[in-house]
């Protein structure tokens, strides 16, 4: 057995092994809590290291799946299949690298039921990585839906005052959407005779069947993404969740929806995707414009960032359903970038929340005076959220807009308003929190970033700027697979593959 | 008619039943004449007997038809009997430490459970409408007594009477249906009914007979609209008895349902399929909504079991081998979850006595983290969330329904499971999100073992039991088609 042949299995289940280890930690005193914290941190760091090794070993010129493991397992339908291609490979390091930051950020802020907190996060990490790494459709469902259990507990146990309503809403929106996908998965099994994603990708589903399958998958991913008007659960879940929960929700769980659209909707149901493309464009533009306007009037920092997430995901869905190479490339880039930036923004909110225990924008003001380092860090992420050139936020938005122009000029025209509005709400938020007169009595004595918070945030700052100026590591890893997806999509809907040929020059 | 039993060896397929029958009588006689024997000792002997019978069943792969065709042992019967025996043994085990408090600390309890189990095994192996009825009545009569065993308790007596009256009614319907089927096919033997149906085309009288027959069995599995007795009996009967009712008899009746529909009415699948689809949808939907308002744990579990029967019937609705395999897997996982949840319920007691309502569970996660974790796992599994066993149970039955293009049934089913998630999650919410109010007593050792075992199997289903169980269920279903 060669270790690297089973690398995906190790990366996926290492966090669960860590969770089992945590079960053995006895006692409820501070020493036991600290031991649990350092075990969790160690396990997530090791997972992160392995995931970066995976990225290093990944051969970007290969359009097929790599690190493949394929075994028949339960009955005739469910197998154990793992593998990554350019579409999925980057989400694994994204998840694994954010997890140590999430664990680290909990050190000061989570003081009750510490061990349980760490266990559910480690289990959640297994589900998230598994969803990106699996090549069996039933197992994808298992991992995808499995995330509901830990997330339900995270919001419900460690959340804010209205956490119960928030966690129920999160659960029922997601569960209802996802079970419809389950029916579609079963129908696919009987159509194609297998749940092996590799084989399903080459199977041609009849167009009239595709429509129904597409709807089943859409019900799940549109809620997960979330697309307007299925986003109602998101702001509440974000507001009530503890910092770590918000970070994971925004950075990783939403990406499961986007990944699903690319892997399944576009790749397996191209005819239906083409047919529904305008419908998705309308919803995407609605998301971009409406939720940006809604974000403008928010008084709660987390809610504002949550709505901005919905708007940014609008760019992703718009990019994906253009079906061309810029769109899909941009969508993936936007997802990775948003994973970093939104995570960092929620960490930033967590920093001031831990000090002041309020998320009301009006409770803050003039923080630049007592917290200069925080002001700088927050500014970088605000700019990335706006999509300023030189930050990672720009590349994804630019590519998706480019794709939208190619597909439909009006779509691009309306989407451009999102860029303007995002500048409005993000900069206004920054002005109200960081600038202005430092007069509030309650803020006196607030401390700047400590070392632990800096360790969490500084790497994210560096990554944001690095990918803004040098997006090649991400674009190169995904290029070959994206080309293939776009090419197959173009062939399936009978369009001239001219755009594909022109765009291979990355 | 000459008997086909010529030697003891030719009885091999029936060894488990014979052993259990003789064992039950011996236990009864010994307990009767041995003054002062404790009920716990009798229960332990009964558990040991059930396990020995289970071992004989599993190690003795003999199959065949016996007693002039009224008794059949095939892969399906062996699978279902294994579940019945395991369920009965497990429910006796979890009632050991609390029999006194529930008023069932009499040796008759264990004996009646043994006799009921024997009845269930005969039901599972019935190849004739007569042996079917005998098995069913042996089981039911034992259960009527067990339900009312706590004589001085009004609720238990009420439960016993309700169960008896409605059970007798259903037996009557079943008998009436059986007589109609006999009248229109000329035989009572299940595998010969098939031939009679194939020879001359179906008659309306036969359909009538079948409907009555199915209605009688639907009572026993408590499918809507024949479910009315379930919540009352579950609530009124002593909790260990409720656990027993919820586990093994459901499996036996489901096995009977499957054998009657797929084997004897195989040629008229379309006729009974509609009935099963209706039962399935009605059970899933009614249980999902009716359970929301319940605060009594046992009533909630009653509706939950009605709902799960509905989900299991989704598989049978397909009327195919895949579907029967699905039901077989479903019942195995259902029985494990039922035993687990009742072990938890029996383990929980506050200073006010045993826990009966959901609100009493407040803050359990902080007081008894182990029990709370097991209940939470079971609740998530009952919802059908992956990667827990409950998901794989639903997977196979819905897969069968989708194969037969029963999309409406499948969509209603999964949406009903979303509704049912609401009340299962409420228990998790009360345990984990609310602050503790009561103190909980320590958990008896054997209950912890049962809980840990069930929890382990549910969580690791995909890795551990999933594959062998599916293979076993696959060969079981294969023996019917």
From TrEMBL, chain A:
Residues 136-420 form the NADH:quinone oxidoreductase/Mrp antiporter transmembrane domain. Its main location: membrane. InterPro entries: NADH_Q_OxRdtase_chainM/4 (IPR010227), NADH_UbQ_OxRdtase (IPR003918), ND/Mrp_TM (IPR001750). GO terms for cellular component: endomembrane system; membrane. One of its GO terms (molecular function) is NADH dehydrogenase (ubiquinone) activity. It comes from the Bacteria. Keywords: Membrane, Transmembrane, Transmembrane helix. It is a multi-pass membrane protein. The chain crosses the membrane at residues 6-26, 38-58, 78-104, 116-133, 139-158, 170-192, 212-231, 243-264, 276-297, 304-326, 332-353, 374-395, 407-430, 454-472. It is found in: Endomembrane system; Membrane. The keyword Transmembrane helix applies. One of its GO terms (biological process) is electron transport coupled proton transport. Belongs to the complex I subunit 4 family. This is NADH-quinone oxidoreductase subunit M. It comes from Devosia insulae DS-56. The lineage of its organism: Bacteria, Pseudomonadati, Pseudomonadota, Alphaproteobacteria, Hyphomicrobiales.
Automatic annotation (TrEMBL), chain B:
It catalyses: a quinone + NADH + 5 H(+)(in) = a quinol + NAD(+) + 4 H(+)(out). It is found in: Cell membrane; Endomembrane system; Membrane. Keywords: Cell membrane, Membrane, NAD, Quinone, Translocase, Transmembrane, Transmembrane helix, Transport, Ubiquinone. InterPro entries: NADH-Q_OxRdtase_suN/2, ND/Mrp_TM. Its main location: membrane. Coiled coil: none annotated. It holds the Pfam family Proton_antipo_M. It is a multi-pass membrane protein. GO terms for molecular function: NADH dehydrogenase (quinone) (non-electrogenic) activity; NADH dehydrogenase (ubiquinone) activity; quinone binding. GO terms for biological process: ATP synthesis coupled electron transport. Residues 126-419 form the NADH:quinone oxidoreductase/Mrp antiporter transmembrane domain. It is an enzyme of class 7 (translocase). The keyword Repeat does not apply. Its EC number is 7.1.1.-. One of its GO terms (cellular component) is endomembrane system. The chain crosses the membrane at residues 12-34, 41-59, 79-97, 109-126, 161-184, 204-229, 241-260, 272-293, 326-348, 369-393, 405-425, 437-463. Belongs to the complex I subunit 2 family. NDH-1 is composed of 14 different subunits. Subunits NuoA, H, J, K, L, M, N constitute the membrane sector of the complex. NDH-1 shuttles electrons from NADH, via FMN and iron-sulfur (Fe-S) centers, to quinones in the respiratory chain. The immediate electron acceptor for the enzyme in this species is believed to be ubiquinone. Couples the redox reaction to proton translocation (for every two electrons transferred, four hydrogen ions are translocated across the cytoplasmic membrane), and thus conserves the redox energy in a proton gradient. This is NADH-quinone oxidoreductase subunit N. It comes from Devosia insulae DS-56. The gene is nuoN.
């Amino acid at each position: 057995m060669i270790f690297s042949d089973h690398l995906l299995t190790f990366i996926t289940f290492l966090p669960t092994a860590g969770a089992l280890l945590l079960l053995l930690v006895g006692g409820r005193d501070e020493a036991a809590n600290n031991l649990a914290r350092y075990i969790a941190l160690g396990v997530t760091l090791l997972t992160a290291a392995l995931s970066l090794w995976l990225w290093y070993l990944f051969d970007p010129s290969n359009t097929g799946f790599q690190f493949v493991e394929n075994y028949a397992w339960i009955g005739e339908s469910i197998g154990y299949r793992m593998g990554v291609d350019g579409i999925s490979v980057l989400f694994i390091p994204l998840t694994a690298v954010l997890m140590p930051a999430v664990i680290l950020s909990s050190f000061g802020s989570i003081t009750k039921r510490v061990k349980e907190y760490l266990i559910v996060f480690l289990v959640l990490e297994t589900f998230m990585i598994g969803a990106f790494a699996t090549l069996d459709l039933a197992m994808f469902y298992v991992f995808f839906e499995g995330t509901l259990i830990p997330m339900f507990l995270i919001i419900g146990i460690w959340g804010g005052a209205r956490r119960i309503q928030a966690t129920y809403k999160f659960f029922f929106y997601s569960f209802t959407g996802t079970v419809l996908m389950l029916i579609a998965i079963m129908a696919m099994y009987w159509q194609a005779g297998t749940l092996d994603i590799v084989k399903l990708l080459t199977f041609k589903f009849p167009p009239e069947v595709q429509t129904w399958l597409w709807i089943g998958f859409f019900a799940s991913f549109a809620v997960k993404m979330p697309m307007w008007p299925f986003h109602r659960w998101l702001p509440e879940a974000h507001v009530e969740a503890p910092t770590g929960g918000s970070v994971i929700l925004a950075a990783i769980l939403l990406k499961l929806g986007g990944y699903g659209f690319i892997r399944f909707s576009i790749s397996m149901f191209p005819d239906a995707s083409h047919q529904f493309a305008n419908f998705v464009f309308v919803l995407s533009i609605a998301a971009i414009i409406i939720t940006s306007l809604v974000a403008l009037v928010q008084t709660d920092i987390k809610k504002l960032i949550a709505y901005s997430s919905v708007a940014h995901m609008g760019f992703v869905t718009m990019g994906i359903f253009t079906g061309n190479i810029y769109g899909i490339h941009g969508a993936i880039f936007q997802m990775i970038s948003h994973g970093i930036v939104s995570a960092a923004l929620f960490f930033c909110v967590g920093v001031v929340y831990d000090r002041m225990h309020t998320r009301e924008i009006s409770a803050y003001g003039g923080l630049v005076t007592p917290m200069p380092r925080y002001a700088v860090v927050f500014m970088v992420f605000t700019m990335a959220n706006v999509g300023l050139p030189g930050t990672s936020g720009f590349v994804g938005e630019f590519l998706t807009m480019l794709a939208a122009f190619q597909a439909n000029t009006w779509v691009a025209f309306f989407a451009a308003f999102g860029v303007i509005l995002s500048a409005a709400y993000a900069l206004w938020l920054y002005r109200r929190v960081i600038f202005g007169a430092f007069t509030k009595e309650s803020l006196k004595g607030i401390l700047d970033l400590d070392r632990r918070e800096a360790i969490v945030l500084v790497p994210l700052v560096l990554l944001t700027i690095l990918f803004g100026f040098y997006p090649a590591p991400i674009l190169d890893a995904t290029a070959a697979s994206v080309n293939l997806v776009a090419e197959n999509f173009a062939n399936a809907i009978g369009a001239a593959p001219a755009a594909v040929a022109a765009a291979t020059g990355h | 008619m000459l008997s086909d039993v010529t030697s003891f060896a030719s009885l091999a397929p029936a060894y488990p039943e014979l052993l259990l029958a003789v064992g039950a009588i011996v236990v009864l006689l010994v307990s009767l004449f041995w003054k002062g024997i404790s009920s716990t000792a009798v229960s332990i002997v009964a558990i040991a007997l059930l396990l020995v019978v289970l071992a004989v069943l599993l190690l003795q792969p003999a199959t065949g038809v016996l007693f002039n065709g009224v008794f059949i042992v095939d892969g399906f019967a062996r699978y279902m009997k294994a579940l019945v025996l395991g369920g009965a043994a497990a429910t006796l085990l979890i009632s050991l430490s609390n029999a006194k408090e529930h008023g069932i600390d009499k040796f008759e309890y264990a004996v009646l459970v043994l006799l009921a189990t024997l009845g269930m095994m005969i039901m599972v192996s019935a190849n004739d409408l007569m042996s079917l009825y005998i098995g069913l009545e042996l089981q039911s009569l034992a259960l009527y007594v067990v339900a009312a065993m706590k004589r001085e308790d009004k609720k238990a007596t009420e439960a016993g009477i309700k169960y008896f009256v409605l059970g007798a009614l259903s037996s009557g319907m079943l008998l009436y249906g059986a007589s109609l089927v006999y009248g229109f096919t000329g035989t009572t033997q299940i595998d010969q009914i098939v031939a009679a149906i194939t020879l001359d085309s179906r008659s309306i009288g036969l359909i009538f007979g079948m409907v009555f027959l199915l209605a009688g069995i639907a009572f026993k599995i408590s499918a809507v609209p024949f479910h009315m007795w379930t919540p009352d009996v579950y609530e009124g009967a002593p909790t260990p008895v409720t656990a027993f009712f919820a586990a093994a008899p459901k499996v036996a009746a489901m096995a009977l349902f499957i054998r009657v529909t797929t084997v004897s009415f195989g040629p008229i699948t379309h006729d009974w399929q509609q009935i099963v689809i209706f039962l399935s949808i009605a059970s899933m939907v009614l249980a999902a909504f009716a359970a929301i308002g319940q605060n009594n744990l046992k009533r909630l579990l009653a509706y939950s079991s009605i709902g799960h029967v509905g989900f299991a019937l989704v598989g049978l609705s397909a009327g195919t081998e895949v579907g029967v395999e699905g039901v077989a897997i479903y019942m195995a996982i259902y029985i494990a979850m039922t035993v687990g949840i009742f072990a938890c319920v029996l383990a929980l007691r506050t200073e006010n006595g045993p826990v009966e309502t959901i609100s009493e569970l407040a803050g359990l996660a902080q007081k008894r983290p182990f029990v709370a974790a097991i209940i939470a796992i079971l609740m998530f599994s009952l919802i059908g969330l992956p990667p827990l066993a409950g998901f794989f149970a639903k997977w196979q039955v819905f897969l069968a329904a989708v194969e037969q293009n029963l999309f409406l049934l499948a969509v209603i089913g999964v949406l009903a499971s979303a509704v049912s998630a609401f009340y299962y999650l409420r228990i998790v919410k009360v345990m984990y999100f609310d602050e503790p109010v009561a103190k909980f007593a320590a958990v008896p050792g054997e209950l912890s073992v049962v809980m840990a075992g069930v929890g382990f199997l549910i969580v690791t289903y995909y890795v551990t039991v999933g594959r062998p169980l599916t293979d076993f269920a696959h060969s079981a279903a294969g023996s019917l088609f």
